[in-house]
Each structure stands twice: as C-alpha cells, then as structure tokens.
Amino acid sequence: MKSKSKYLIIGNSVAAVAAVSGIRQIDESGEITLVSREPHHTYSRPLITYLLGGKVTEEQMAYRPADWYEKSNVNALLGTEITRVNPDEHTVETADGETLGYEKLLIATGGTPIVPGNVAGTDAAGVFTFTTWDDAKAIEAYIAEHGVESAVVVGGGLIGLKSVEALIELGIQTTVVELAETMLSASFDRTASELAQRRLAEEGVQVRTSTTTEEILAQEGRVVAAKLTDGETIPCGLVIFAIGVLPATEIVEGTDIEIDRGIVVDDRMRTSVEDVYAAGDVAQARELICGEKRCIAIFPNAFRQGDVAGRNMAGGDASFEGGLVMNSVTVVDVPTISVGVTEPLDDSYETMVQLDEDAYTYRKIVLHDGRIVGAVFVGDIERAGIITGLIREGLDVSNFRDMLISRDFGLIQLPTEYRRRVISGTGTRA
Amino acid sequence: MKRIIIHEEYCIGCGLCEVHCIVKHSRTGKIIRAFKEERDQIVPGVQVERDGYESFALQCRHCDDAVCIEACMTGAMHRDPETGAVLCDTDRCVGCWMCIMVCPAGAIQQGADGTVASKCDACTDEEIPVCVANCPNEALVLEDEE
Amino acid sequence: MPNWLIEPDFVVERDPDRCIQCEVCVRQCANEAHEFDEELQEVFTDSTRCVGCHRCASLCPTDAISIRPAELEFRPNENWSAQAIRNIYKQSEQGGVLLTGMGNPEPLPIYWDRMLLNASQVTNPSIDPLREPMELLTHIGSKPQRLEFSGGETPQLETTLGPQLELHVPVMFSAMSYGSISYNASEALARAANEVGTYANTGEGGLHEDLRQYAGRMIVQVASGRFGVDVDYLNSGAAVEIKIGQGAKPGIGGHLPGEKVSADISATRMIPEGTDALSPAPHHDIYSIEDLRQLIYAIKEATRYRKPVGVKIAAVHHVAAIASGCVRAGADFVAIDGYRGGTGAAPTMIRNNVGIPIEFALAAVDSRLREEGIRQDAGLIVAGSFRCAADVVKAIALGADACYIGTAALVAMGCHVCQKCYTGRCNWGIATQDPYLTRRLNPNIATRRLVNLLESWAHEIQEIMGGMGINAIESLRGNRDHLRGVNLTDRELNVLGIQMAGE
Ligand SMILES: Cc1cc2nc3c(=O)[nH]c(=O)nc-3n(C[C@H](O)[C@H](O)[C@H](O)COP(=O)(O)OP(=O)(O)OC[C@H]3O[C@@H](n4cnc5c(N)ncnc54)[C@H](O)[C@@H]3O)c2cc1C
Known about the structure:
The structure holds 3 protein chains of 3 kinds.
Chain A: E1 3-10, H1 14-26, E2 32-36, H2 48-52, H3 68-71, E3 74-78, E4 82-86, E5 91-94, E6 99-107, E7 111-113, E8 127-129, H4 133-146, E9 150-154, H5 158-169, E10 173-178, H6 190-202, E11 206-209, E12 213-219, E13 222-228, E14 233-235, E15 238-241, E16 245-247, E17 263-264, E18 276-278, E19 283-286, E20 293-294, H7 299-313, E21 326-331, E22 334-340, E23 349-356, E24 361-368, E25 371-378, H8 384-393, H9 401-404, H10 416-424
Parallel strand pairs in A: 1-2, 1-6, 2-3, 6-18, 8-15, 9-10, 9-15, 10-11, 17-19
Antiparallel strand pairs in A: 4-5, 5-6, 7-16, 12-13, 13-14, 19-20, 21-22, 22-25, 23-24, 24-25
Chain B: E1 2-6, H1 16-24, H2 31-38, E2 46-51, E3 54-59, H3 67-71, E4 77-79, E5 86-88, H4 98-102, E6 109-110, E7 117-118, H5 130-133, E8 140-144
Antiparallel strand pairs in B: 1-8, 2-3, 4-5, 6-7
Chain C: E1 10-14, H1 24-28, E2 34-37, E3 42-45, H2 55-59, E4 65-69, H3 82-94, E5 99-100, E6 115-117, E7 138-140, E8 149-150, E9 156-157, E10 165-167, E11 171-173, H4 183-196, E12 200-201, E13 218-222, H5 231-236, E14 239-243, E15 254-256, H6 263-269, E16 277-279, H7 289-302, E17 309-314, H8 319-328, E18 333-337, E19 346-347, H9 348-353, H10 358-371, E20 379-383, H11 389-398, E21 402-405, H12 407-412, H13 435-438, H14 443-468, H15 473-476, E22 483-485, H16 490-496, E23 499-500
Helix pairs in contact in C: 4-14, 8-10, 11-14
Flavin-adenine dinucleotide binds near residues 11, 15, 36 and 108 of chain A.
C-alpha cells in the first residue's frame, strides 16, 4: 500500500470541496488526499453549459482559486480514477492498480448521466451526454468541426434546458424532446412549465412533449436525425441526452455499503459501514419535508452534505437538516425558482397563486398543515429565499398566509421572533 | 467581526440608507449626479421594508452560516477573510440566482442589468458603512460581535 | 365649502436641480405636505399643509427644500395684523377656541435680555473654573433657620434637616406628562436626569411602569386630575409637586383627548382606555391655603416625611402673596411658571394674554419671602422659557434656587418649535403618540443630547461664575448686586430689585 491518509475523498466537486473546508474547520493539519477522475482543477459543474455557450471563459470555470488545494493543505490526485472501495481493509484501488489507505473515507462521486439502452444508434458520432467539462469541450469541437446547425436535446429537465440555453447562444436551431406532458415537470407545476415553453417557443425552440426518441439515425457514422416514438423524424446534426443522472455507486457495489438508489446515509452522512461517508449526488439522505431518504441531485445539497460529512469525519458533531429540492433556472430571460412540493399531492394541500401571463410573472405557494411546503416563482423572483427559509423552518404561517403571495411581501410581515433571528445573522438553520 | 445591528424600533422608514448606498456605489460618489445619471443602474444593498408604521432597513446579514455561499455554484459568493463580510465577486457571478433562492432574509437582489447578483458589500473600504453613518435615528449601528 | 379664506403659513420651495426624487420628504411629513406622483415620478408639495417643522428640510439629503413664511401680504395695518385677520378667518370658518402649543411667541419684553451680569476686574480676582473647584451643587428643600450643635470639642449637628433634592446642575426638566409627549421622550428626560444628576418631572400623567427605574431622579406631580396617583407613585419619586397652575394657561385645566389615551397611557394614568383625560381647572379639594396645607401634609404623611413636597403655580398678579401662602402651607419648594412657559396644548388667547413675566414674579417672590423671613423654608424653582445658561445665571442671581427647562429640553431632542404639539402629529416624534411618529425619537440619541445640553450649560454657568469671582452657586443665589438693568424704567428696576447699568 502506497500511503494511508487520515482523510480520503473521492471526488473533486462541490461535495468534496465542502468536505475539505468542513474538515479544516475542525482539523487544521490532518492529511487529506483528494482523488478525482477528471483531470481539471475543481470546477463548477453547472457552468459547463455557460462554457459551451461562450458566457464564461475557462478561467472562470474554477470553483475555488488556483491555490486552493495548497492553502487547504490537500494532496490532490487529479486524473486518477478509483475502481473499488475495500471497507474492510480501509483502502481503495485506483485504475492504475494502486492502493490508497484511509482512516476516514468520503465518497463524493456524484452522478453518471443516463443514456437509454433501448434507443438504437446512440453510439453514432454527435451523440453526447452533457455533465462534464470534457463533454462541453467535445460538443464545442464537434459543432465547430461539422458546422452543426440544428440539434435535438432529449430531456426537458434542468440540464436539458441549460443545454438548450447554450445552443441558443450558439445560434443552433434546437428541438427539445420530453417524455412527460410538460417540460421541467419534476420541479415545475403545469402553469410554470407552460410559461417556460412559451418563452422558448418565442426564441424559436421547438418543444415536443409526450414523446421521446426511438432511434438515432446516422450517416457515415454521424448523427443526421432523431426519430421519435410518435413517428416524426427530426433532422439534426447533434443529439444531447439529458434525461438525468444516476448516483455513481459502481465503486462500492458488492461491498457491505448499503445502496438503494444512491448510497444510503444517515443525518451525519455516514454510510452503513464504519468510517465511510458519502455526500452529494451519489448519496441518498433524508429529505426535509417527507422525511424519507431520497437522492436530490442539486448543488446546495451537495455542499451542505459535504460540509456535514467533513466535520463529522474530523470528529465534529454536525447534522444534516434534510434535503430540499430546489432549482433556479433562467428560461431565456425569464428567471424562475422552484422549491419543494410544487403540485399538491392530495386534497389536504392548498395553493395560492398569482399569475400574469403577459408579463411572464407567476407566483405559487403550496401549503400543507399551515406550513409552506413548496413554491414557484416565475419572472419576479425577488425575496424567494424568504419563502425557502420558511419551508426549511417549517414555520406555521396560518396567521399571515394571505400576505405570502403579495408582491411586496417581505421579512417584516413575519413573526417578530423568527425575523429577529434571521436578522441577527447568527444562524438560521433549524 | 463587526456587524450591522438593526434596531427596528427606531427605523423611521426615511430611506436615507438606500440613498447613501446608491451614492456610495455610484461612479462619481456625488449625490446629485449619482441620482441623475445612475439611478437606474444601481440596486441599493440596503432596502427598507415597510408595513404600516413598522419598518426596518435590511442589508445582507453576512450570516455566520451563509447559505448563499453554499448555494453559489460559481464560487463567486465568498467570505472575505479579512472582514468576515459575505461578498459577491461579480466577475465570477453568472446570475444563476441560486443565492436569491436560498437567502432567508431576502437580502440579495438581481443587479440592475439583470446579469449578476447585487448585495450589500458591507462598505469594507469605509470605517463605517454608509447606511449606518447616515441613519438619522441610529436604527442601524455597527457593533462588534464575537 | 372650500377653505378659500385659509391661506398657507409657509411656502415650501423645492430646488428642481437638487431634488433627486428620493421621497425622503414624502415619508417624513406627517402632515402629508409632500406627495409622490407615481405617474410623473415626481414629488409635489402642498404648502398649505406645511407647519414649518423643518423635518423634511432637515432630512433632505441634497438640501433641496427651503421653507419660508408665506409672503402674501395684507394691506399694512398695525392694528389689524395678518395674524389677527387669519385668526378671524379660521374661527369664522371652523368655530371654536383657537388652540396652540409651546410658549407665548408674542413680542412682549424678555427681561432677561435687559439684565446684564457682572465680572471681576482688578479689585477682586476672577476664578478659572478649569483650574479651581467651582461648586454647582444645589439643594432644594426646606432649610432650618439656624443650625444647632452639641458636643463641644467635636461638634454634632443637632438640627434635623428636612428632605432635600440634590442637583449637580441647577437646571431640571419641567413637568411634561407622558401623553403630552411620547414615551421615548419621557424616557430620555428621565435617563438624562439620572446621568447628569438632576431631576425630571412626570407631569400630571403618572409614571409609566418601565420608567419607575429612573424615579429616584424624578419629581412626581399631583395635578387636579390626580392621574396615575397612588401611594406607590408618590413614594417612587424623589419629590412630589402639587400642580396648581401652569404659565402657559393659568387658571384653566387640561384635556387629553380620548384618541390619545392608548392602552399604555391608560395604564399609566389609571383611567379607562380611550376616555378623555380631563384635568379640572382647580383642584376640587383646594379652595384656600388651608386646603392646600391639608393636601401637602396628606402627601407628606403618605411619603413619611421623606420627600420634599412642593407646589407649582403660574406667575400671576399677587404671585408673591400666593407663594408666601404656599410656603406657609408647608411647601418645601415653590415652582413658579412664567407667562412664556410652554404647553402641549392651550387656548391661544390664554397663552398669549394671561400671566406675568417670570423675571418680575421671581424678584417679587424672593423679596417677599425674605421680608417675611421664610425664604429658607422653601426652595424656589422658576420656569417659563429659559433659553440658555445666562438666563439661568440671571435667575439665580435674582433669587432662584434652580430653573426648570421644558422647551429647551424639547429643542435639544429635535423640536423645531412649530407650535403644533396639540395636533398630535409631531414630526419629530416628541409630542405625539402615533406609533409611526414616536419611533422617530430614539431615546438613546435624545438622552445623549439632553446630557450634552445640561453639561454644556453647566460649563457656561461655571465660566460666568468664575468671571464674577464666585466659586459656589450658593454665593450667587439672590445676589442681585451682580445684575444691572438696561432699557428698564425705574419702576421695572424697582420691582426687579436691581440697579441701573452704570450705577
Ligand atoms: C449541466 C449541469 C447543470 C447543473 N445546474 C445546476 C443548477 O443550476 N443548480 C443545481 O442545484 N444543480 C445543478 N446541477 C447539478 C449539480 O452540478 C450537482 O448537484 C453537483 O455537481 C453535485 O456535486 P457532487 O460533488 O455530488 O458530484 P459531481 O459534481 O458530480 O462530482 C463528482 C466528482 O467525482 C469525481 N468522480 C466520480 N467518479 C469517480 C471515480 N470513480 N474516481 C475518482 N473520481 C470520481 C468526478 O471527477 C467529480 O470530480 C447541474 C449539473 C449539470 C451537469
């Protein structure tokens, strides 16, 4: 065995970075080794679409400054893939056959993009997934090399929409193919989805809902069209699959570490096996509102879990207060935010709605048991965080619920004790 | 760190904090020019909330557990190591509004041109933040806090 | 019917080159003189609503607002002045008594300005107060005629002294009730009195529960309405003052309208919420000096003779005889309020025409009590528009033990003497109970300003005394030789008991 670190972190993204800072809050000197398959300095994953769209430069991709590893006293092994975790031996194996030892291990391997197995022709050139920097570079190179003018994005979710944004920037005629009845169905309600779709249509983006790709048609090994299940064929020079990610759990499969959808963790981010922690998109942790363990592949979640894991690995006592689904996406020029439960699950839920279709503004608040459990904001997103805070806090809003939906709703309408705490700035986490 | 404490019972809702914040963050720093030339280009980092006779001026609380830093996907939102202030590096901000989504105080805004986040920068280059210095009723005060 | 006969008192001018449309003025004017036109995105001003309080001009960040008296001139007429004409317009329009606030603004003589102070030259040395002790300590209460000692070698004081107020500055805050002024203003006065070592006065509105902590430096007042008076109240203060009269409105009572009797005020005054607080013109149990004596001794009994009990009267004709009666009735101090004394609300005709100048009242009372050999039996406090340290020094030389300041204290807190206290819409948050306005007075700031004021007056008093070669305020008291008159007739000099300048 080459070495044994006090802390070994697999991953180099949000969860990993947060874990390093979490550890360093408590343990300033304990040896940290960080291993990443990707060769890049830690970068902001969501920025890859901006990179493709030319809205950020490569320098701007850095999630932390260039001297971050050094300053945080981290031994970073970039471009190194881990193939296996051996919890019993407290070791991991690299693709190069090396063995690394650890006292505490964090698995922060994120997600792996899904390519549907039942679609023929996905091995053609010009078919991509889009979750890494290298994907962005590859797509960019392909577009340049082949003069791509039209594209099909499969999947109308968050990553799909972000891909579309980049393609619009590049002037590529884009069609979105979405299996559900509306785009962004996972996070939006119908009204918000329709607003988004309308705005996209105005920009010349075709959105095909309730259908998906059946086959990718290629000529000379290169994609030329996508054939849909509804029979239509859409000519295109590029296909991006953006139908979601699966937790990247391969390296622990077959060990005692419990995997459900993702790696199952408790509120301290511990897996079922001692000294092994997991955080971020790979982890399956408690969700705040329903209390069940779920995979919530979003950035703030990954940060929070990484931080909690790091602190606990270093002997601290941090607890994850539960994940909350939330997204902030700008559709062309319309900002949107969605948090928590955006459609009532049954009759016991109530909603409050304010809509101005022409102005592309929409606000919706979903209540259950006197508490806010979800919200959607389209167009006017100012102060959305106050609602998010109330959801997190689980505060009973019955006494002032009618104000929540008003445009000039603010902290001042909230109960004095709660707003004093928020205003104090000393900590808002429940 | 030094923190701006809000004594809401003394806020008179005048809005002078907003005025001086705009001036401070204007190109010229001159009040009349700032308003005549740049009023639409500056979103004040402090905003007065009013409800009936109650009011208070709210700027970023520079929280100890700043959720905006956690949610920021570019690393633009960061804590200034020297002053402890939570700052947004607008060169790195891409306007994804994750910070607006999570700020429980609602104290982060979209900048005037809608491309980057705008928030209180704690006037780190001033001895006393201008909103505090110009509050006529000491509803905003700077206090040392452990 | 439009009020076309009612004209604006002021013209508000807005410099369009300086106005930045920030709306601070709009938000600050409780009289709604400024309005923001959403459509035009511009602030407009209705001068008829302006009361000249300067709140907007003071807070305007670009000094874009100036306020000047409305220049609309009537044909010049010394008899039918603009004010006289306007008053008639107002009364014939609205009916009823003309109301006003603050003290008498009429151009009647201010005798302080006709008295000048002395200073040492050559034959007696002046004293530098920065280098040598300069005693301002003042005791108010009944002093014994003579002191008796026993014990020969190590003398022991045998005389028992009556209860005394102890002032580090011979200036106290005069009676301003919670109700006429805001809670924050009351708190600031109480706290400042504590910090400086002088006294604030509850006025006739009782003492708010939260202010009891400061009561050791407060005089509690008992007035004809007996608001908030119970035995705990009497015992909570440092002294008790029976209010018979007030300089701004001698002979009449008071009226706090029910709208202002909030839950807090109702608890403090011990009357039902929302009911009018009516102070009768007389105390219905006092029709003679003997009756007054009964009340004084009732209070002394209730406070076990531990607190000085005094009487406040307005300066009116025969004030000397009245004051003498008060002293003989057992008052440990007499407070005299002159015709320029302030008020939260008074009928204009009364305020401007009833009473006599405090300077004459003081001189007359002090002389009379001395003549009668009872000056030591009571402290003498004077009130009614003390504007500066020199006024205080002159009053003490004329015979006072200490002064009360009301308006000066309010001005220190931001009052611009706009005389609209009676409307309850004080833009400075002082004479109002409107929660939107009361928060404008931060008691921390107000306390600081009041303390600064008293401390600076104390320094000035010390400096003036030093110049006279006097190192203790006791030596100045009643020392009329240090005063000389200018612009005064023989009769005036006579009543004041001072010599003409040059004599
Ligand atoms: C295009 C795009 C846009 C997005 N936009 C948003 C958004 O707007 N808001 C939002 O909340 N979320 C967004 N997300 C999701 C967000 O990026 C993820 O939630 C977040 O990156 C998860 O972080 P993580 O640290 O768990 O894992 P990841 O970011 O997935 O990082 C995994 C890390 O592990 C390394 N790794 C994986 N396997 C191995 C191995 N076997 N050996 C060694 N190293 C390995 C990888 O190299 C990488 O460094 C977006 C994602 C994408 C792809």
